[in-house]
Amino acid sequence: MPIANYSVLAGRPTAGKVVSGASAHYQITMQAAGGPFTVAVNIQSVDGSEVLYAIEEGFAPPDLAALLALPMGMTALKSVAGGLALDYVRSTVGGAPMITRAQMTLLPNQGAKAKGLSVEAEAIQRAKARALENAVVTLLNMTIADMDGVIYAFGSAFSDKGRVDGIHDIHMNQGNPSAGGFNKDNGVWQDGALLIHLPSKGTWTAVFIAFQTESWSTDSVGNPV
Question: Is the confidence at residue 160, as pLDDT, over 90?
Answer without folding.
Answer: no
